[in-house]
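Long-time lurker, finally posting.

We've been working with Replication-associated recombination protein A (Paenisporosarcina antarctica) and I want a structural starting point before designing mutants. I don't trust myself to interpret raw outputs, so I'm hoping someone here can both generate the structure tokens and explain anything notable. Sequence follows.
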Amino acid sequence: MQNEPLAYRMRPHKLDEIAGQQDIIGVNTPLYKMILNGHVPSMLLYGEPGIGKTSLAYAIAGTSNLPFIALNATRSGKKEIEEVVNESRMTGKVLLFLDEIHRFNKLQQDTLLPHVENGSIVLIGATTENPFHDVNPAIRSRCGEIKQLKRLTADDLLTLIKRALTDNKRGLGRQTIQISQEQQMKIADSSNGDARKALTLLESVVSASDEEDGVTIIDDALLQNLVDRIGVFGDKKGSHFYNLLSALQKSVRGSDVNAAMYYLAHLLENGDLVAVSRRLLVMAYEDIGVANPSVGPHVLASIQAAERLGLPEARIPLASAVVEMCLSEKSNSAYKAIDAAIASIHAGKVGEIPSHLKDTHYVGAATLGHEGYVYPHNTPIGSFGGWANQTYLPDNLLKSKFYKPVLAGEEKKLAGIYEKLESFKQKKK
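Top reply, 14 upvotes:
Generated this for you. Predicted structure of Replication-associated recombination protein A:
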């Protein structure tokens, strides 16, 4: 057993050994009480890597004493599922833990789902992806519980580290290790809420440390070197990556520079410069818009500079763009207007293009009635330029209003012009 990784050896055997997730499996939660009373519901566990999905499944199995089988959806086929079904027929009920359940294929489903439905197989599925996006509805409908696990706190990880250091059977308790409270806390703080990462880091630093008179002494410099090699949590293109993009945009929209910097840093550490740049450019027009029209070109210039520089230097122009967007006046009027127009079309609100707006660049256009267009540049109005009081929308849509100005930044001036022109239109009778 000692040849197995520390993180594997330290998996909890009972629910009371779970660190963190108290809102899901704490002693006062319905799920905890159900399992203690002998009822284990089928469920989906959703969350980032290393936060306890597998551990929770093993702890449920240990507490319930049900026959337990663990499979991975990427490596299991119909044969393995049939073996689970056969086991359930012999024992009456089986607890199946299926990791990466979002990879479940139709053949596996067809074999397994009837038995999950009749209760002979209790299914615990784990996924790093949003189950409402990536898990088949047939699976979701048969899982009475969908639980989103959260990243562990530093205190939760510290509890696990201390348990691993003192456990004589599964942990490192048989070794004499000189490790300070500060060093333990550094491991916890550096692991980004990932229990597997914390225990792997602890095991690595212990294995790499020197012994003196039978005592393993943890060196600060060695620990720092290993900490620096830890990657940022979150898989590129996984749910967490898209959550980071969402959090970045919402922080910019909310004008919180510090939060925006935090999420930008995480995204850049994941290394996907293209996805980050694309989202920043969308934000410039969606959230800043015509309140500050200069931001769009500024962000585009920052993105182009970032592409030429590459990471890590690309972070500098992108950070400048994010600061400018955070502190800029904001308006979503333009994007709301185009969405309203698209929604109108989808709702069937369409009409005939007015004849005077139709193409006239061919012989016979006048015969078809395509005439009467007034060239606005020929009729200047004050310092605005050319404007002509003529209709542009189809007759049955003349009262449609898609654009609703926001009185922010430069758009205040545009809103004034818009209202003035609308008042001019009312004079045409």
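Before you design anything, note these points.
The domain at 154-228 is CATH 1.10.8.60 (Helicase, Ruva Protein; domain 3).
The chain has 19 helices and ten strands.
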